[in-house]
Design goal:
about 475 residues, alpha/beta, Gyrase A, domain 2, Four Helix Bundle (Hemerythrin (Met), subunit A), Rossmann fold, 6-stranded mixed beta sheet, about 45% helix, flat
Length: about 475
């Protein structure tokens, strides 16, 4: 999408179709500006009572009706943007809405009316103090929510729950900053402001509250972004069957022929309201063992997907482990190639095919001298399942949420973004440094004051108290036009 307009253009009046493209029962054309009286008079044919829905014809240039619908006028400052806002609710035909938009632009030329850029209505709401930046982002997150839990959490953020907790932290930091500044400004005073006000206790309380907000923000960011999971393993271990089982649909082709999957197949599912983006990949093996160039390209794309994942489901075959030395050697090679620090969930598939045989050890044999399968211990962290029968799938879902750090408390979670989490982490870092300065026998008050200022500034970045113009352009440029 194109970036939101520069602040210099915020004085323009704007108009856009505010409903999604395509046919619908109702379509909305929305305008915002400093004085929309000429637009109201030309399109509606009369003045409108503020905040009342009025049924009337929308007039074309020849004075004839383009359509009949509802017109609602919101005089400034009591509107979504803080400016005059006019909403025309017509029948939702694409051609009709374009005619109505063109009519608005025609008569609005006298007031400098132009087409709105993506996110410009909400950007004006932010600039006119109708919403803070976290609430403005929650508008887009509510529209884009892919699960019920994400939608509810976005609604809580839009209502201001996240902002209120951040503001409360900011106020406590501000009070502590005032104490430190007072001590710096009046060093000759006998009263030790910091000791008297229990500055150490205040900072500990701030740190505790901050960690709670950070934990909730991490949960909210997971609800918004979801978990990127890649299913990886050797050919014919049941990766595609596992994707189909998790998705509850036949998305990937499943055959007993190794190398059936040549490219990535993705599907988004939800587990307890958390979006999980699952990608099935081509079976991993040495390039020399690949049947053709297409399979080699698929294997390369598999490793590329693994490097970009949050979590890897390493699928292994219970019917071959410990029985086939070549298979075991390839398992060790794949495990060694996984990115360092990657979250890996080991999955042992085809439990239904054992037919009463002893279960092989759920761990990669270390080499040719490994113990027999029935003698080796079972790795407690491995999951045994059957993609065909569904055995163990629920345990796998729970393990994925655990790997993502999800805690089942969606009703207390507000939607958050990666930048919010990063800002809270920076705040926590500066609070820790401030505590270290404060705990020394002779605190360096100037350094303490600077760390508290930086912590306070990090919180301000979340709600937009401290915000660079280029960040605003990045945020609002991702909105849909008309919002």
């Amino acid at each position: 999408m194109s970036p939101a307009p520069p602040l210099a253009r915020q004085g323009d009046s704007i108009v856009a179709i505010a409903t999604a493209p395509g046919r619908g029962a109702v379509g909305i054309v929305r305008a915002s500006g400093r004085d929309l009286a000429p637009l109201v008079a030309a399109v509606c044919g009369r003045a409108l009572a503020p905040r009342h829905a009025t049924v009337l014809p929308f007039l074309g240039a020849d004075g004839r009706s383009l359509d009949q619908g509802l017109a609602i006028y919101f005089p400034a400052p009591h509107s979504y943007t803080g400016e005059d806002v006019l909403e025309l609710q017509a029948h939702g035909g694409p051609v009709l809405l374009q005619l109505l938009l063109a009519r608005c632009l025609q008569v609005g030329a006298v007031i400098g009316l132009r087409l709105a850029e993506p996110g410009e209505f909400t950007q004006r709401a932010f600039l006119n103090d109708k919403l803070d930046l976290a609430q403005a982002e929650a508008v887009a997150d509510l529209i884009d929510a892919s699960t019920e839990a994400a939608a509810r959490s976005a609604a809580r953020a839009l209502a201001g729950e996240f902002s209120q907790r951040v503001d409360a932290l900011a106020q406590r930091l501000l009070q502590l900053r005032m104490l430190v500044e007072a001590t710096l400004d009046f060093p000759e005073e006998e009263i030790d402001f910091l000791e008297q006000a229990n500055a150490r206790g205040q900072l500990r309380a701030i740190d505790t509250a901050l960690r709670a907000v950070l934990a909730a923000a991490r949960q909210g960011a997971l609800l918004r972004e979801g978990l990127r999971v890649v299913i990886a393993g050797q050919p014919n271990v049941g990766k595609s069957s596992l994707l189909n089982a998790l998705a509850g649909a036949e998305l990937a082709i499943v055959t007993p022929i190794p190398g059936t999957t040549r490219d990535r197949v993705s599907e988004s599912i939800q587990i307890e309201g958390v979006p999980v983006h699952v990608t099935d990949t081509a079976g991993l093996r040495k390039d020399a063992e690949a049947s053709d160039e297409v399979e080699r390209i698929g294997i390369g794309r598999s490793w590329e997907a693994i490097r970009g994942a949050d979590c890897v489901l390493f699928v292994r075959d219970l019917t071959r482990a410990g029985r086939d030395p070549a298979y075991d050697a390839a398992e060790r090679e794949i495990a060694a190639g996984l990115p360092p620090g990657m979250t890996v969930v080991e999955v042992w598939n085809k439990a239904d095919a054992l037919d009463g045989e002893s279960t092989p050890a759920l761990a990669i044999p270390p080499g040719p001298d490994a113990a027999r399968p029935d003698e080796a211990p079972v790795a407690p962290e491995a999951l045994r399942l059957s993609a065909r029968t569904g055995e163990g799938l629920q345990a796998l879902r729970e393990r994925l949420l655990e790997a993502a750090g999800w805690q089942a408390a969606p009703e207390g979670v507000f939607i958050a973004r990666a930048r919010h989490v990063q800002a809270l982490q920076r705040c926590a870092l500066h609070v820790d440094r401030a505590a270290a300065h404060l705990d020394t026998p002779a605190p360096a008050l100037d350094l303490l004051a600077e760390e508290l200022r930086l912590a306070h500034q990090a919180l301000g970045e979340i709600t937009g108290v401290v915000t660079a113009d280029d960040l605003l352009g990045e945020i609002f440029g991702r909105f849909c036009i008309g919002k």
